[in-house]
TrEMBL record:
GO biological processes: nucleosome assembly
Species per Swiss-Prot/TrEMBL record: Mycena pura
Biased amino acid composition, Polar residues: 1-22
Segments for region (Disordered): 1-51, 147-169, 370-437
Family note: Belongs to the nucleosome assembly protein (NAP) family.
InterPro entries: NAP-like_sf (IPR037231), NAP_family (IPR002164)
Name this polypeptide is given: Nucleosome assembly protein
Signal peptide per UniProt: none
């Protein structure tokens, strides 16, 4: 504490868990020793730190101190335990009041969800009109064009109005690769879309949003808070599905932050046509018979990075498995990171890409995404990422092979980096302001 801050016995502040010890500690008893051992107490640590050099030693010591401090988080100072029983009763009463506040917050979030559902219904005719223009069933009217040009002029003072339509000019229907372009112009999704994926995404003709049905209505997740994203497809050479869905389900009660808590996601099974599975790569390998020494060529498949892995979301292990230590900490961290990415992609599709699809197609939305990215970067320090080039998946098919590699190696892409809200955190609904979706 700074020596400029006067400490007077007659001006002591109210006791808190931070400034009130469990028992008195007179100066005559001396100061307690530091909980972090010095180098002389740990010969092996001293030798290891010395080998790191000055900067390495400083970083290592800082890590040791931070580790010790982290272990103190959440530990009681003894202040609450020292309070009298009447004061403790009042504290329990405050908790009871807070329970009622939480109940109201839960009701508020439910009503916000209903408000989003209401405005989605109002927007559906506009989304349907947008779809007609994109797929070429209709062309924009003069009124729609005028409204769009007015907005363009408002956004850009140098905007030049389009020339009037000539009498003999033919209408060009449809906008090719609209959704592929819009998705690729989203910074996070661009990392997930491979060149092979792009060939399939050219057949994507619409993405729609719906909320989970109410209690009593038809639907697997009726009564639960959440939403479903539906991808609509033209006939293509990759899979037979005409629609693919991804459903995000929130927990029934709001979390501590006052928002709905992400519970899990469920995706469609993709009916891939033969040899068209974009989530796997194939390679030719030689397999040698151990007895006859004869060789043969076999095909082996490997999971690979693909946008279509979005429809097979990661699953968080059970609490029992985690508590029992059945998972390696690194594997658990990887699953959590993949859940973060999966959750944020779903929220961005719902909150950004579907309502602002034309802005992502033109690239206008990138101006706002870049601003958000810069603000996020200001909150973090740069660190070396040693795992940047590691593949997203390590699993391979179970084949016994005593072979040399063939001539068709499987190429892997690095994993996408997570952005934004972590899985298990709140949705993007602002506690202060209901979003009108």
């Amino acid at each position: 504490m700074s020596s400029n801050v006067p400490i007077s016995q007659s001006n002591i502040g109210a006791p808190t868990p931070q400034n009130t010890p469990l028992s008195h500690a007179p100066i005559s008893q001396g100061l307690s020793r530091p909980t972090v051992p010095d180098i002389s107490e740990e010969p092996e640590v001293a030798e290891e730190l010395t080998s790191l050099g000055a900067s390495g030693m400083q970083s290592a010591m800082l890590g040791m101190v931070q580790g010790k401090l982290a272990g103190l988080v959440g530990r009681s100072s003894g202040y609450i335990e020292s309070l009298s029983t009447p004061v403790k009763r009042n504290l329990e009463g405050l908790k009871g009041i807070q329970v009622k506040q939480t109940e109201l917050q839960n009701q508020y979030k439910r009503e916000c969800l209903e408000l989003e559902r209401k405005y989605l219904e109002l927007q559906k005719p506009l989304y349907a009109r947008r779809h007609e223009i994109i797929v070429g069933k209709a062309v924009a009217t003069a009124e729609e064009i005028a409204a769009g040009e007015a907005q363009s002029a408002k956004d850009d003072e140098d905007y030049t109005p389009l020339p009037s339509k000539e009498a003999d000019e033919e209408d060009v229907k449809g906008i090719a690769e609209f959704w592929l372009t819009a998705l690729r112009n989203h910074p996070g999704l661009a990392e997930l879309i491979t060149e092979r994926d792009a060939d399939a995404l050219k057949y994507l003709k619409d993405i729609t949003l719906s909320y989970l049905p109410h209690t009593g209505e038809e639907g697997e997740f009726a009564g639960k808070p959440g939403f479903t994203l539906t991808f609509h497809w033209d006939e293509n050479s990759f899979f037979t599905n005409t629609t693919l869905t991804k459903t995000y389900i929130y927990q029934e009660e709001v979390g501590y932050s006052g928002d709905f808590v992400y519970d899990r996601a469920v995706g469609s099974d993709i009916a891939w046509k033969e040899d068209k599975d974009l989530t796997r790569e194939w390679e030719i390998k030689k397999q040698r018979n151990k007895n006859t020494n004869r060789t043969r060529l076999i095909r082996k498949s490997h999971p690979t990075a693909s946008f279509f892995n979005f429809f097979a979301p990661p699953v968080m292990p059970s609490d029992e498995a985690i508590e029992a230590g059945e998972l390696d900490p690194d594997d658990l961290e990887e699953i959590e990171e993949r859940l973060e990415v999966d959750y944020q992609v779903g929220e961005d599709l719902k909150e950004k890409i579907i309502p602002r699809a034309v802005d992502y197609f033109t690239g206008k939305a990138l101006e706002y995404d870049m601003l958000d990215s810069e603000e996020d970067d200001d909150d973090f320090d740069d660190e070396d990422d040693e795992d940047a080039d590691e593949p997203e998946f390590d699993e391979v098919c179970d084949y016994d092979s005593d072979s040399d590699d063939g001539d068709v190696p499987a190429r892997r892409r690095g994993p996408p980096k997570g952005r934004g809200t972590a899985a298990g955190n709140s949705s993007n609904v602002n506690p202060e302001e209901c979003k009108q979706q």
